[in-house]
Specification:
Layout: E1 7-14, E2 34-41, H1 43-54, H2 60-67, H3 71-84, E3 103-111, H4 117-125, E4 130-135, E5 142-148, H5 151-162, E6 168-175
Antiparallel strand pairs: 1-2, 3-5, 3-6, 4-5
């Protein structure tokens, strides 16, 4: 049994539908109400999360062996973390080179004075080549990570998709030469 480290987290939990699904914006799925739920993570939960981040397909029995609990106890803890939104889902990491989408760029987006962040966030998030959308403060309004095949595909993405979004005033793009680290892992 692990000692509770006193750390708790709050998660937006959809009040209907799949409790594990959340929009990448952190505001919950569009059209679904969310409520704040307090959930206390103990050291065992953190060990479970670490194991799942290493390999989301690891069997509950293997996690149980590693942390010293039964497989059913692990299943219960994982299910609870899914229900409260600590675990938002599971994904497959695909090698971008295998799909010939090797060019990564960061697009800084500035908006007009009357721009509404939720509409621009939704429009940017709907573009398949967009991997991340971050609303920021400072000179720019959004920081967007995109992945495309080549510079020509980037030009089409910018000209036909991003710059045509209403209230997008300007964009500035930086092309990545090499990537030293790229991870979805959250420190536990």
């Amino acid at each position: 049994m692990s000692k509770d480290n006193g750390v708790s987290t709050e998660a937006d939990v959809p009040t209907g539908g799949d409790a594990g699904a959340r929009a990448d914006t952190g505001d919950g799925p569009p059209g679904k109400e969310t409520s704040r739920v307090s959930f206390s993570l103990d050291d065992t939960d953190r060990m479970i999360l670490s194991q799942l981040q290493d390999n989301a397909r690891v069997a509950n029995a293997e996690i149980a062996r590693r942390v010293g609990l039964t497989a059913s106890a692990i299943h219960h803890r994982i299910r609870k973390m899914e229900e409260v939104g600590v675990i938002r889902g599971y994904t497959t990491l695909v090698d971008p080179a295998a799909l010939d989408v090797r060019l990564v760029s960061f697009v800084r987006v500035q908006t007009g004075q009357n721009a509404r962040a939720p509409e621009i966030t939704a429009a940017l998030s709907a573009i398949p080549e967009v991997q991340e959308v971050h609303r920021v403060v400072g000179e720019d309004c959004f920081f967007v990570k995109v992945r495309v095949r080549d510079p020509q595909a980037l030009a089409v993405l910018l000209d036909d998709h991003i710059q045509t979004i209403p209230n997008v005033a300007t964009t500035k793009t930086t092309i990545v030469l090499t990537t030293a680290k790229e991870s979805l892992r959250v420190p536990v």
